[in-house]
Amino acid sequence: MSDEIPEVEAAGEESAAPVETPAAESSAPGEMNATPSAEDSEPVAAKPARKPRAAKAEAPEAETPAAETPARARPARARKAPAAGQPQAAPKRGAAKRREAPAADAVVRAQAKYVRSSARKARLVCDNIRGKSVADARAILAHTPRAVARDWSKLLESAVANAENNHDLDGEDLVIKAVHADEGPTIKRFQPRAQGRATKIRKRTAHLTILLTPKN
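Below the sequence we write its predicted structure tokens.
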């Protein structure tokens, strides 16, 4: 009997001893969350905020943008006065033409270009009227049988009209001072011939000129 009692007491002591529960262990994580460590308690350094892009694009107030700068006014060009030996520029159209008094040795000129006649045929007619008065030249051309005489007659009337309207001269008191016929461009054509050949056809042209002057 004396030996069994201590065993019961020992067993009772063991049962009375506090039993470790996992609550203490489970509470440890809760305590860590509630009370963070010294490393966790240090504040995290905040990153600096980026500057807006618009601030970089802004120019200083002192400088003005190129678009707003006023355009430079071009200075007016001064017209150069003609030198003593150089001829002056022709007057503009619409300006009043000044008529000068007709001189005794005034020469009136008329020209017909690209007349459909050879220069040789035209010279055969103009040789007859060189040095003649306007009235005599009209009579000679009216009775000349050549076709180019009609072109010479038209050119003579044109020269007389120029003298009367532009130089205030009397058409009946004029003399043919000079008359000549120059060669113009040749129109080239071809005519078919036998055995597939071709023959050149040259259509000549002439430039006719008449100079009139008053009688002395």
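The longest strand covers residues 174-183.
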